[in-house]
Amino acid sequence: MRHHLILRVVSKMLIPFILLFGLYVQFHGDFGPGGGFQAGVIFAAAFILYALVFGDDQARKVIPDKALILLVPMGLLIYALTGFAGILLGGKFLDYDVLSSDPTQGQHLGILVIELGVGITVAAVMISIFRAYAGRTKAIDKEDW
Amino acid sequence: MFIGATTAVLVAMTLVLYRAFAGPTLFDRVLSANSFGTKIVLLIGLLGFLTDRPEFLDIALLYALVNFIGTIAILKFFRYRNMGLSSDEIASREDEG
Fold first, then answer.
1. How many alpha carbons fall within 13 Å on the CB side of residue B76?
2. Which pLDDT value is given to residue A1?
3. What residue segments make up the domains of chain A, in order of their start?
4. How far apart are CA A143 and CA B13, in angstroms?
5. Confidence band of A142 (pLDDT split at 50, 70, 90)
6. In this prediction, what percent of chain B has a pLDDT beyond 70?
7. Distance in Å, alpha carbon of B68 to nearest chain A alpha carbon
8. Is the complex ipTM higher than 0.85?
9. 6-65 in A: which are within 8 Å (CB) of B?
10. Which long-range contacts (CB under 8 A, 24 or more apart) does B59-66 make?
11. Which chain A residue shows the shortest CA-CA distance from B72?
12. Tell me: the pLDDT tens digits for A56-81?
């Protein structure tokens, strides 16, 4: 714990706020800049920062690979099921109007759920991409550095 | 006032860019990339006020964040050649030399 102490402390302080900012971008996306993709990337950035500072092995304890494998299709499934829910309720594919009795309410609900699905998938994919590259090369030897 | 500040930031950015290309060491370039990111954060904020769109501050905040994480990633990669190195491995490596 002696090495890179400042980095550790700053990262520990920053990570909750990164997650909070990710959630803000996710749910404020209808009114300001943002949306599911951006929120997913910000959310993944928090976990990537954790993996960078505390090591890939610690990050794998926070989100195991099995959870990532489940999360990637789960977001896509949320998106697709919302689309099919529109058909089942008598509208078209991805027709938000029929999701609620009030069309405006339905639009709000639909875009919220769709963006949530996008956010989950993007976050999981970004963390997976980082992991695929992070542990790949052998660490450089002391003499070679 | 905002136009003057934007010009000043742009001048500072060209100076930082010169350092990035001139080098001479890796750490000069990393530092200049980091400073360039900081100046982009300032520029986004200023452009937001120039164009009367204060929601640009969200983007500036995000850019500061990505800049921070990117710099750590670059430094870790060039120091250890491995982005997933754990703290125990880092400690053993640092204690060797």
1. 28
2. 47
3. 5-134
4. 37
5. low
6. 96
7. 9
8. no
9. 7, 14, 18, 21, 25, 32-34, 38, 42, 45, 48-49, 51-59
10. B59/A33, B61/A21, B62/A21, B62/A25, B62/A38, B62/A42, B63/B37, B64/B37, B64/B38, B65/A14, B65/A18, B65/A21, B65/A42, B65/A45, B66/A45, B66/B37
11. A52
12. 888 888 888 899 999 999 999 999 99
Flag whether pLDDT at B69 surpasses 70. Answer: yes
Mean pLDDT of A94-104: 81
B59: tokens are 């983007």
Query: Does the pLDDT of residue B12 top 90, yes or no?
Result: yes
The residue count for chain B: 97
The structure tokens listed for B55 are: 């929601």
- Chain A interface mutation, best of B72, B77, B79, B96, highest count of A Cβ atoms under 10 Å: B72
For residues A91 and B48, what is the distance between their CA atoms, to the nearest angstrom? Answer: 40
Tokens for A10, please give them.
């700053």
Structure tokens of B80? Answer: 């250890």
Residue closest to A51 by CA, chosen among A42, A37, A40, A63: A63
Say if CB B72 and CB A7 are below 8 A apart. yes
